Amino acid sequence: MSVQSKEVTNDKGQQYHICCSKEDIGRYVLLPGDPFRTDIIARHLENAKLVAHNREHKTWTGTLNGEKVTVCSTGMGCPSTAIALEELIHCGADTFIRVGTCGRVCPESYNEDLEGVIITGAVRDEGTTVHYVPIEYPAIADRHVIDALAKACNDKGYNFAEGIAQSKDSFYGQHDPDSMPNSGRLHQRWEAWEKSRVMASEMETAALFIVSSIRGARAGAIMAYGSMNDHTIELACDAIKVLIERDKE
Ligand SMILES: O=P(O)(O)O[C@H]1O[C@H](CO)[C@@H](O)[C@H]1O
Ligand SMILES: O=c1cc[nH]c(=O)[nH]1
């Protein structure tokens, strides 16, 4: 039996950061980092309505296959992602797909034909999730969500790999480690991720997987290499439809 966090509300009784209430949020949620990306993803929903926009969290709710589906931006990094997750779970959400962008890491990921990655697990190279549970606990995706993403990808014939993401706290620690006094440690660890077949580097998935596991929710992630593309958004929406249909069975 999973335990929810205590609700913290604003003066309207809404969740403190996302400024939403239970009736605003669907069971199924798409999670981009960027608030502007929510507008693009919301166009894939039927009857999408803007519910709230507070700080980095912009939230739309509409339907897919007749079920209520929400799009909510997490902002950049694990702290704001964990906050969004907790508050969406307070509102009754239990199924999450991150729709993000990422960088390439291991040699295999540098195959230019690959559009992106369906994430199966995340390296907890960040500071948020140790506030939840010791580092030995794995950050893994829900197998039903991975399978729904894999089915969507197979049906469309798009070229996505499956693999592990590194969730880090410093974008410039990845892109310019030599400018950091801590460069030795950054290089050593990056080499370890390259040698251990890490397929993607990004900043939110570890928090998504850890908070979801601990709170008893299901989560997965699909990420585009470089900038966001239509295929990644399409597959995330298709996977939500697969889960909706399978949940009815
Ligand atoms: O495209 P999003 O979802 O923001 O994800 C990636 O892009 C940002 C860095 O540019 C980080 O948030 C990283 O995880
Ligand atoms: O290289 C990249 C691209 C997106 N997001 C990251 O964190 N790194």
TrEMBL record:
Keywords: Glycosyltransferase, Transferase. InterPro entries: Nucleoside_phosphorylase_CS, Nucleoside_phosphorylase_d, Nucleoside_phosphorylase_sf. It is an enzyme of class 2 (transferase). It catalyses: uridine + phosphate = alpha-D-ribose 1-phosphate + uracil. PROSITE patterns: PNP_UDP_1. Pfam families: PNP_UDP_1. Its EC number is 2.4.2.3. Signal peptide: none annotated. Residues 27-225 form the Nucleoside phosphorylase domain. Belongs to the PNP/UDP phosphorylase family. This is Uridine phosphorylase. It comes from Bariatricus massiliensis. The lineage of its organism: Bacteria, Bacillati, Bacillota, Clostridia, Lachnospirales.
